[in-house]
Amino acid sequence: MASTQLNEALASAFTDMADGLVSGSFGRKKRIGLTLADSEHGSEELVRAARLAAKQYADIEPVLIGDAEENEFEQHPASGLHECHEVMEQLLDNGSIDACVTLHYSFPLGVSTVGKVITPAVGREMILATTTGTSDTVRNSAMVKNTLAGIAMAKATGVAEPTVGILNIDGAAPVERALRQLMDNGYCMQFTESARADGGALMRGNDLLQGVPDVMVADSLTGNLMMKVFSSFTTGGSYEALGYGYGPGLGEEAERLVGIISRASGAPVIAGAIRLMADCAEGELLDVYRRELAQARECGLDEILEGLKPMAAAAATETVAAPPEKTTDEDINGIDILDIETARDALWTKKIFARTGMGCTGPVIMVAREDLEAASGVLKESGFIA
Question: What does pTM read for this prediction?
Answer without folding.
Answer: 0.82
